[in-house]
Amino acid sequence: MLVNEVKTIIYNIILSQVYFYKLLQKAQYNVTEYIKNEWWHYKVIKLKNGDIYMNRNEIYHQIEEIFGLIPSMFKSVPDQSLEQEWELFKMLELDDGPIPQKYRELMGVAVSAATKCRYCELFHTELAKLHGATEEEIENALHYAKHTSGWSTYINGLQIDFDQFTSEINRASDYIRKSQREKASVK
């Protein structure tokens, strides 16, 4: 009985790979090769345009190598979006960029507080700490978010003329720049 069950499982795996191949063809992707990882499992698929498609198992493997587990938020992403979401997540959350990761995460803490997302708040607070943010810096980012949200609520509620506001901000910025140049020339 077990042998038949194993044969059925193998048959279904092969059928799913064939079905996936046909889906790619139907979507007008020209598959040039499958790159095998194991005899039954295709790690990636290389398309004629040079793009590489990773399947869910390979993406999960990468996620687990980084986090030690596969967070449920990734498990809920549909197959057709998982690779793009994972690549974007890695680029924005894990890769170095023009803004150091500590400061990006402090921005994430502030945005999370403003949007009132407890999931994001926990995530960005923990990552900020991992990148060296102190409790004081985290509190300051939160205070800044509260301050910005408060003024936003206030001036939007008053319906202050936006053109006037823009003019005033531009004039104030010009004045401050001029003052900074004057102070720098005195030194």
Task: Give keywords.
single chain; 187 residues; mainly alpha; AhpD-like; 2 domains; 3-stranded antiparallel beta sheet; 3 strands; elongated
Present the secondary structure layout.
Elements: H1 2-26, E1 31-36, E2 42-47, E3 52-54, H2 56-67, H3 72-75, H4 79-94, H5 101-115, H6 118-130, H7 135-158, H8 162-186
Antiparallel strand pairs: 1-2, 2-3
Give an overview in words.
By secondary structure, the protein is mainly alpha-helical. The chain folds into two domains: 2-93, no CATH class; 97-186, AhpD-like (Up-down Bundle), CATH 1.20.1290. The protein has eight helices and three strands; from the N terminus they run αβββααααααα. The chain has helices at residues 2-26, 56-67, 72-75, 79-94, 101-115, 118-130, 135-158, 162-186, and strands spanning 31-36, 42-47, 52-54. A three-stranded antiparallel β-sheet has the order 1-2-3. A hairpin with a 5-residue loop joins β1 and β2 (42-47). It is elongated. The relative contact order is 0.05. Residues 6-44 have low confidence and may be disordered.
Concise structural overview:
The protein has 187 residues and is mainly α.
Our Rg estimate from Cα atoms comes to 26 Å
Derived structural class: mainly alpha
Strand segment count: 3
How do the SSEs run, as a string of H and E? HEEEHHHHHHH
Q: Which strand order do you get reading across the main beta sheet?
A: 1-2-3
Low-confidence stretches: 6-44
Helical proportion, percent range: over 70%
Continuous helix count: 8
